[in-house]
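Deviation from plan, reported transparently: zinc ion complex.
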Amino acid sequence: MSEDEKLLLMPGDRLSTEEEYLPAGNAFAEEGIVYSSGIGVKEIAEGKIAVRVVGRKIKKLKKGMYAIGSVVGDLKSVIFLKLDDLEFDDKEFFAPKDGKIVLPRRGPRPPRNDEIMKPCKLGDIVLAKILFNDPDVYTMGIMEDIAGVVYSNCEVCNNPLSLGSKRNVLQCKECKHTEFRKVSSAYGDFNKIKGILEENTKI
Ligand SMILES: [Zn+2]
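Because the crystal trials were delayed, the predicted structure below was used instead.
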């Protein structure tokens, strides 16, 4: 690579003429001149010129992506999540707004008929899918197997809860207290959760 090619290019910088190279990624042509549309370094291949963007690519979370967050609000029919920003090796996703989970009229079946409970509770960490990207909030879904609570503390002794013997039941190993949740199939498995969240980079 020559010194010239190491130069950091800015949007609008002249790269070549269209006769020399056709514009590829992060480059555009105007009146026969090819310009950079990104911040990065020049890359030339097969008669085309591109700008390889350096640094992290920052994107907003959008519909179809999974997000992780903690339950910060719990109303009668809506649960609010404070979503985490996500960082991967070369990409970053930020959550410019909170998420909400609208509770279905009939949620997952509670373990006992006399218990009417919420799928998640204040302080829980929840993995959820973005169903709608509304202007002020993300509407999130937790009905898929992989979605739901991935970490929760015991409401009695505050120790971390473990998977219980039944589906959608969490149990405290310390005090044996059990709690009902919509439990993710990735509960407590942070490598699996990371894998799910990394799928966002393909959307
Ligand atoms: Zn406990």
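Residues 190-198 form the longest helix (9 residues). We consider this an acceptable substitute for the interim report.
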